[in-house]
Design goal:
Elements: E1 4-9, H1 13-24, E2 28-34, E3 49-50, H2 53-58, E4 63-66, H3 73-82, E5 86-90, H4 97-109, E6 114-117, H5 124-134, E7 141-149, H6 161-177, E8 181-189, E9 199-206, E10 211-217, E11 224-231, E12 234-239, E13 244-250, H7 258-264, E14 268-274, H8 281-293, H9 303-322, E15 326-327
Parallel strand pairs: 1-2, 1-4, 2-3, 4-5, 5-6, 7-10
Antiparallel strand pairs: 7-11, 8-9, 8-15, 9-10, 11-12, 12-13, 13-14
Length: 331
């Protein structure tokens, strides 16, 4: 069977990684690249650098990856949908929920695979955690808390930290819990002199009763990517920088130190760092996209799911502006 022909538009920081992985994944072939600003990282190699999505489409594609700035997602995505090309667009799906809705409708109308690059779902630590939650290893889930902090990325200029980094945590939280966000309360601040927020703290509740907490910023000198899921049998801690997954078990042996037992609330049990395979998340994401196009499986982040995540992000911003808890609208 011939390889699926893939085009890539956007050759910036994420684009260069997409180009590398597309060339590594079996069954697909990178046949065209485009970026109106050129090829700063030299990823085109033997390919001509095209200047527009129209030129990319003219190359004759089965699939495309759109790694352009968020403000261009709708324009590029709608053009690819109109041309009948299955597309993976980087997160967030679009700059606004209205634009995201148009993307959802365009790909659905053509019967195309439209996927959104919420890559954290494909991190091995979170993939293993999702399976373990589904298998009942944690029992009832009570809370999901995330921390995503690091230095300011100078390449991000068109959206704030909520739609850029925060959407990772919104998506992975709903995915792990298998439940949509119901309400959200958030506070933001802007300290870097940029026009958009660069720090947010948000507290939410999902439809299934799980409570959530998210700390996200571009103002920390250290990089942190943690997801903590607490339930009746203990807590899982996933570090998606190292792809480590650790289980803190609720103990069954009561401590004899009365004051300490009262302080802890639950007894400490075994702590286990789990041995899991660690494939590159971007490669796993591309393999899922390829298989979805081939009709073999359907575990990509759909455009509908990408829109749901963006609706929560916009609710976060509305809550921060109003100082009130906000109910997340259904898509």
């Amino acid at each position: 069977m011939a390889n699926l022909r893939v085009g890539l538009i956007g050759l910036g920081m994420m684009g260069r990684h997409h180009a590398r992985v597309i060339r590594e994944v079996e069954g697909i072939e990178l046949v065209a690249v485009a970026d109106s600003y050129g090829d700063p990282h030299g990823v085109a190699k033997e390919l001509k650098v095209l200047s527009s999505v129209e030129e990319l489409i003219a190359a004759g594609l089965d699939m495309a990856v759109a790694a352009v700035p968020t403000g261009m997602h709708e324009e590029v995505g709608l053009a690819l949908a109109a041309a009948g090309i299955h597309t993976l667009v980087e997160k967030p799906i679009a700059a606004s929920a209205d634009a995201g809705q148009r993307m959802v409708e365009a790909f659905a109308a053509k019967g195309l695979i439209g996927a959104v690059g919420h890559i954290e779902r494909f991190n091995p630590a979170l993939q293993s955690l999702r399976k373990r939650i589904a298998n009942g290893e944690l029992g009832d889930v009570y809370q999901i808390a995330t921390r995503r902090q690091g230095p300011f990325p100078s390449r991000i200029a068109d959206v704030g930290v909520v739609k850029d980094l925060g959407t990772h945590d919104i998506d992975l939280t709903a995915w792990l819990a298998q439940s949509r966000f119901e309400t959200i309360y958030a506070r933001t601040t802007t300290r870097s002199g940029r026009p958009h927020e660069d720090m947010v703290t948000a507290t939410g509740q999902l439809d299934n009763g799980v409570i959530t907490n998210h700390l996200v910023n571009w103002l920390s000198p250290m990089k942190e990517r943690l997801t903590i899921v607490t339930g009746e049998k203990g807590a899982f801690v996933a570090d998606t920088v190292t792809a480590d997954l650790t289980f803190f078990e609720n103990g069954t042996v009561a401590t004899e130190w009365e004051s300490m037992a009262a302080f802890r609330g639950v007894s400490e049990g075994n702590v286990t760092r789990l041995a899991i395979p660690k494939p590159e998340p971007l490669r796993t994401e591309h393999e899922a996209f390829r298989d979805a196009v081939l009709g073999l499986r359907s575990d990509v982040v759909t455009m509908q799911e990408g829109l749901d995540t963006l609706l929560v992000a916009e609710a976060v911003l509305r809550s921060a502006d109003s100082g009130q808890m906000v109910r997340v609208p259904a898509s």
